Amino acid sequence: MTERDACALLKARFEQAGYEIDDNVPFDEDGVRFEIDGFDAAKRVGYEYVTEEAGDSWDVDGEVIDALNAARRAGKLFILVVNEHDAPDAGSLGKAADAFIATLGEQPAKKAPKQPAASKPAPKKPASKKPAAKKPAKAR
Predict the structure, then answer these.
(1) How many CB atoms lie within 10 A of CB 72?
(2) Residues facing residue 127 across a β-bridge
(3) Tens digits of per-residue pLDDT, 75-92?
(4) Please, which residues have CB within 8 angstroms of residue 49's CB and are 6 or more apart in sequence?
(5) Contact 79, 68 (CB under 8 A)
(6) Contact in structure between 48 and 56 (CB atoms under 8 Å)
(7) Integer Cα distance of 75 and 71 in angstroms
(8) Average pLDDT, stretch 55-81?
(9) What span, in angstroms and rounded, lies between the C-alpha atoms of 110 and 4?
(10) Residue 89: which residues within 8 A CB-CB, separation 6 or more?
């Protein structure tokens, strides 16, 4: 199965499950950096089909896969990583995708940490009006 066909199948399965998948998204979090084949950034769900054709093994190695699995266990990120040798055809890849998607309903993803907003000073109260001081009367 080609990388292109596999990604089309995965995208269709994930979108059918309600995810809004963007293709070939640069991913760089917590020391993990690679171009992910498909990703729904809002829901923190995606997939990577590792093939020799695309040269994925140099950037999606065992260390990256371990980090992605740790993020999944922590409920922060849910990425299906499947190797072309483990799912070489549409049937096996579809089953892997369906099994993965079925687990997502069990653990909702936590939102990515937001950057702290710049603190705004507290609004100032309008200056209260004081009665004007009386001027002393002129001496005649």
Answers:
(1) 20
(2) none
(3) 999 999 998 889 999 999
(4) 3, 6, 7, 10, 37, 56, 82, 84, 87, 93
(5) yes
(6) yes
(7) 6
(8) 85
(9) 30
(10) 1
Specify which residues 7 forms β-bridges with.
none
Look at residue 76 in the predicted model and tell me its pLDDT: 92
71, two tokens: 């993020």
Query: Are 9 and 84 within 8 A, CB to CB?
Result: no
- Integer Cα distance of 83 and 93 in angstroms: 9
- Residue type at 70? A
In sequence order, what DSSP letters do the residues of 24-52 get, joined into one string?
EEEEEETTEEEEEEEEETTTTEEEEEE-T
pLDDT tens digit string along 24-58? 999 998 888 889 999 999 999 999 998 877 666 66
Token couple for 6: 């596999």
Q: How many residues does this entry show for the chain? A: 140
Q: What is the pLDDT of residues 85-129, one digit of tens each?
A: 899 999 999 999 999 999 987 554 444 444 444 444 455 555 555
Quick check: helix, strand or coil at residue 78?
strand
Instruction: Find, among 101, 111, 81, 92, the residue nearest to 19 by Cα.
Output: 101
The residue behind tokens 């979108």 is 15
| Dihedral pair phi/psi, residue 24, rounded to 5° | 50, 65
